[in-house]
Design goal:
Blueprint lengths: L1 E6 L4 H12 L4 E8 L3 H11 L3 E4 L2 H4 L12 E4 H8 L7 E4 L7 H9 L3 E4 L2 H18 L3 E3 L2 H9 L8 E8 L9 H4 L4 H4 L9 H9 L1 H14 L6 E5 L5 E7 L4 E5 L5 H9 L13 H4 L14 H11 L3 H17 L5 H14 L8 H22 L2
Parallel strand pairs: 1-2, 1-5, 2-3, 3-4, 5-6, 6-7, 8-9
Antiparallel strand pairs: 8-10, 10-11
Helix pairs in contact: 4-5, 5-6, 6-11, 6-15, 10-15, 11-14, 15-16, 15-17
The chain binds manganese (III) ion.
Length: 386
């Protein structure tokens, strides 16, 4: 039995983690839940999972969790400090981080410091803090198990392979809802259109990132850290069918691809069961119905965020953290109707241009530079004023 602490339980990934755990009640037990502010949902989840620990990021949400949990003997935690304390409890075998945004960085660091295996769906954690996290993983000889479908695919392609045999890592992406649109056509696209992802059902932040292709850029930075490869080795290709979840080319010209349904429960289950595989109801792809797999180069003119992410990644230092923080702020303002779709990439570009990168030596450096980027983004958003 693996004892799991689930961070971000009320989000899209978190809800699917609970499904996987419910499908395998003899393998996994959730002993801790952490959510942002949705106290109603976390209460429902607690009645199902019967955890011993619950944390809420929004400190006012704890008090709203009703008495229905009073006979469960639950210990409650508050804020990011509370979540960071929760991940260290001795009984936890696996920390699943499904939080959204680089706010997930501190709990990840605390979990690793406590020697825990972490299954990571929170890509912003690696984008902002990869330079802190990866040395910690190596020093403590821990496992960081990717849940992001592309990275789970690459991770599985690399099983049993030598790192020095990697020639190229090829990250696939559906191209999002606006694939094929010109920059002119993107001027007037709405939030509702951006939220309609053609292949994956996901939370709103990542769905907007998929529409701008920032998501692929963040994934390239994530791959750089996770697999220890430089950016010249990483390629992004648009694959609208989303059947191939990523590929690895080796020095002998062999290419391994990972294929499957677009259902996050598959990579989630693999991260939970690793190194074993467990059976699942999601089997039996009908290739005659799939019929075609197509590919095209990403359009960096309509979707410049992808290029900005590669640039920030290559520059290293605090550039990726600043790119990510500016993007998080811009996306949330887009979702609130304050800026247009194209403003997102403009804001990211401006802030990256202004930024003077600093070597990442500690968490405080990242936090302070993120704060700078968020404040600069808010100033720009105010100026754009809608
Ligand atoms: Mn992905």
């Amino acid at each position: 039995m693996k004892n799991i602490i689930l961070l971000g339980s009320t989000g899209s990934i978190g809800r699917q983690v609970i499904q996987v755990v419910q499908d395998n009640p003899d393998k996994f037990k959730i002993i801790g839940l952490a959510g942002h502010s949705n106290y109603k949902l976390i209460e429902e989840q607690a009645l199902i999972c019967k955890p011993k620990h619950i944390a809420m990021y929004d400190e006012s949400a704890i008090g709203k969790i009703s008495g229905s949990l009073s006979n469960l003997e639950i210990k409650f935690y508050q804020g990011i400090e509370g979540i960071s304390e929760l991940v260290q409890i001795p009984k936890a075998d696996l920390i699943v981080n499904g939080m959204v945004g680089s706010i997930g960085l501190l709990p990840t660091i605390r979990a690793l410091e406590a020697g825990k295996t972490v299954a990571l769906a929170n890509k912003e954690t690696l984008v902002a803090g990869g330079d802190l996290i990866m040395p910690l993983i190596r020093e403590k000889k821990l496992n960081l198990l990717p849940i992001d479908s592309e990275h789970s695919a690459i991770f599985q392609c690399l099983n049993g392979e030598n790192h020095s045999d990697i020639k190229r890592i090829i990250i696939t992406g559906s191209g999002g809802p606006f694939r094929g649109k010109t920059k002119e056509e993107l001027k007037l696209v709405t939030k509702e259109q951006a939220l309609k992802h053609p292949r994956w059902k996901m939370g709103s932040k990542i769905t907007i990132d998929s529409a701008t292709l920032m998501n692929k850029g963040l994934e390239a930075i994530e791959a750089h850290h996770l697999f220890g490869v430089d950016y010249e080795t990483i390629e992004v290709i648009i694959h609208p069918e989303s059947i191939i979840h990523s590929m690895v080319e080796f020095i002998d010209g062999s290419i391994k691809a990972h294929l499957g349904f677009t259902d996050m429960r598959i990579p989630i289950q693999y991260a939970l069961s690793y190194p074993l595989r467990l059976s699942s109801s999601l089997t039996g792809m009908d290739f005659a119905k799939v019929a075609n797999l197509s590919f095209e180069a990403p359009d960096l003119t309509s979707f410049p965020c992808l290029g900005y992410a590669f640039e920030a990644g290559k520059k290293g230092k605090t550039y990726p953290a600043v790119l990510n923080a500016a993007n998080e702020t811009a996306v949330s303002s887009f979702l609130n109707g304050k800026i247009s779709f194209l403003d997102i990439s403009n804001i990211v570009y401006e802030i990256l241009s202004e930024h003077k990168g600093i070597n990442v030596s500690d968490f405080e450096t990242i936090r302070s530079q993120e704060e700078w980027a968020r404040n600069r983004a808010l100033e720009m958003i105010k100026r754009l004023g809608r």
